[in-house]
């Protein structure tokens, strides 16, 4: 009787895991339906007239896609985002690996990135605007300030926590310093480094929207600011919804790539 009682929860858990409801796509669909349904209800019984129903927002979204407003704005937003993420990825991984391999480099650089990660971005944007103007440079730097510290610190942690047994094994085979780095340390650190890239890209999306809202209203930020000023809240929320969906899809693609590259046990379900 005790055996049956103890194994029953495990059986139920296994049955749920095998059911279609446990599939990640189904869970995403259920979550989307719940959120959109709650949004629609809240829009029809508004706390504020500035919160339109989900159906009105989707109508505005479709209209902006058809007339080309949203695609043009998205392309403008992607320019500083892409440049900032490319710079952050290459510099961030390089600096993080260097600091993970060298104690002096960590002592010199780690506090800077910890401060950059902790400092409120809204306080730094006026400094960037004063120093570099209101053009592309300030927006790219805003993306870098948001994304690079996450990438650097994750890369540092990944390299620093390489299993000592792997390094000792490489040394026992008389591997050189560069061979240990290229064939043991970096492969072992790659999953955590890639996870840092994913988090850094998510932070970069936040940075570029803040830059467009606080520096110069361009791209998606321009749609949000303009429609807020003329009380066209459907268009404003449609632009916000579009950039959220775009960022979620981008991060999901990175997660899929991470699963294929570094998690062999998930390749069948990725």
Short précis:
By secondary structure, the chain is mostly helical.
Instruction: Classify the helix fraction into a percent range.
Output: over 70%
Characterize the largest beta sheet: strand count, sense, and whether it forms a barrel.
Answer: none
Structural class: mainly alpha
H/E element order? HHHHHHHHHHH
CATH-defined architecture: Orthogonal Bundle
Number of strands: 0
- Beta-strand percent range: under 5%
Describe what you observe in this structure:
- The structure is a single chain.
- The chain is 83% helix and 0% strand.
- The longest helix has 38 residues, at 177-214.
- The protein is mainly alpha-helical.
- α10 runs antiparallel to α11 (233-262).
- It has a single domain (64-263), classed as MetI-like (MetI-like fold).
- It has helices spanning 2-18, 24-44, 54-66, 69-101, 103-118, 121-132, 136-160, 164-172, 177-214, 219-229, 233-262.
């Amino acid at each position: 009787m005790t055996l049956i009682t103890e194994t029953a929860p495990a059986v139920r858990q296994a049955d749920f895991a095998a059911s279609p409801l446990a599939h990640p796509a189904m869970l995403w669909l259920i979550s989307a339906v719940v959120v959109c349904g709650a949004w629609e209800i809240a829009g029809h019984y508004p706390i504020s007239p500035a919160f339109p129903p989900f159906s009105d927002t989707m109508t505005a979204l479709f209209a902006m896609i058809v007339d080309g407003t949203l695609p043009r704005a998205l392309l403008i937003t992607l320019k500083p985002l892409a440049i900032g993420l490319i710079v952050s990825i290459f510099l961030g991984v390089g600096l993080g690996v260097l600091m993970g391999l060298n104690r002096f480099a960590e002592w010199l650089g780690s506090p800077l990135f910890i401060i950059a990660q902790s400092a409120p971005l809204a306080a730094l944007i006026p400094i960037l605007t004063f120093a570099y103007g209101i053009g592309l440079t300030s927006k790219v730097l805003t993306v870098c300030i948001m994304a690079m510290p996450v990438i650097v610190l994750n890369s540092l942690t990944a390299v620093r926590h390489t299993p000592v047994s792997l390094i000792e094994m490489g040394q026992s085979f008389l591997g050189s310093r560069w061979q240990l780095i290229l064939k043991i340390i970096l492969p072992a650190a790659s999953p955590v480094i890639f996870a840092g890239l994913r988090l850094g890209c998510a932070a970069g999306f936040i940075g570029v929207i803040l830059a467009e809202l606080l520096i110069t209203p361009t791209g998606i930020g321009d749609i949000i600011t303009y429609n807020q000023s003329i009380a066209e809240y459907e268009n404003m929320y449609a632009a916000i919804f579009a950039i959220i969906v775009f960022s979620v899809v981008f991060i999901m693609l990175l997660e899929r790539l991470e699963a294929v590259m570094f998690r062999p046990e998930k390749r069948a379900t990725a």
